[in-house]
Task: structure prediction
Amino acid sequence: TPMIRLLGISFDTFAEELYRRMAAEGLGDIRPGHGCVFGGIDPDNGSRLTELAERACMTKQSVGEVTSDLEKRGYLERIADPDDGRAKIIRLTQTGREAYAIGRRLIDDLEREWAERYGEERIAALRDALEAVTADRLGALSA
Result:
């Protein structure tokens, strides 16, 4: 089986369980497509749209649509950037912070469960390999 297929199926398996659990927590309106914002936003200070798009490796237009959807759902708000009056900061509302915290907890729970199911050493090795493979890209995105 080609590695790209294995990675895709693994991601889908993890994501499907994550979103099933999020729905059970009352967050059934959060969809996998919202991850481009929740996965890249600075939970404390918010982020600019350009930062979110870069971190998600998506266009500003695509992330902007997701941002607008999450704003309508009450998870995000846009405020003026204090460093640039022309720009906006996208930040989590109280509801968004709660959803973010639940999502992080569920992700951590799933990773622990995978370690129990498949072996701690195997999951640690998988994590190490994925961190090595993505180091350059993640480093460039956080710079």
Summary: The chain has six helices and two strands. The mean pLDDT is 93. Strands lie at 76-81, 84-92.
